[in-house]
Specification:
This protein is 0% helix and 50% strand. With 118 residues, the chain is mainly β. 33% of the residues are buried.
Length: 118
C-alpha cells in the first residue's frame, strides 16, 4: 500500500505562485507514474499534469506554460510548481500514483486546497 501526503496549498492572489509537494510512504517515484489532479466545487476532477518513470511530462492545455511537474527520487517527493495563478485554478489538488502506467491511478492523497483571488 502506498500512502501519499500533499502539502503546500494555500491562498494567493492572481499572478502569484505556489509549489505543491507530495511525499510517499515508501519508495515509488523512480518506477511509478505520478500525476496531479484538481477538483473545483461543482466540477469534475481533471488531470493537471503527469510524469512517467523516465521523467517525461504532460500537461492539461489550461496549465501549459504556467505549471511544472517534477520529482525528486532521492527525497521521494513529487512537486507541482504553479506560476501565474488564475482564479480559475482554485480547487482541491490531489497527487496520484500508479505502478502500471497504462492503467488508471490507484493511489491518491487526501488533497490540498489552492485558492486564488482576483
Amino acid at each position: 500500500q502506498v500512502q501519499l501526503v500533499e502539502s503546500g496549498g494555500g491562498s494567493v492572489q492572481a499572478g502569484g505562485s505556489l509549489r505543491l509537494s507530495c511525499t510517499a510512504s515508501r519508495y515509488t517515484y523512480s518506477t511509478y507514474c505520478m500525476g496531479w489532479f484538481r477538483q473545483a466545487p461543482g466540477k469534475e476532477r481533471e488531470g493537471v499534469a503527469h510524469i512517467v518513470s523516465d521523467g517525461r511530462t504532460s500537461y492539461a492545455d489550461s496549465v501549459k506554460g504556467r505549471f511544472t511537474i517534477s520529482k525528486d527520487n532521492a527525497k521521494n517527493t513529487l512537486y507541482l510548481q504553479m506560476d501565474s495563478l488564475k482564479p480559475e485554478d482554485t480547487a482541491m489538488y490531489y497527487c496520484a500514483a500508479k505502478k502500471l502506467c497504462f492503467a488508471g491511478y490507484n493511489y491518491w492523497g487526501q488533497g490540498t486546497q489552492v485558492t486564488v483571488s482576483s
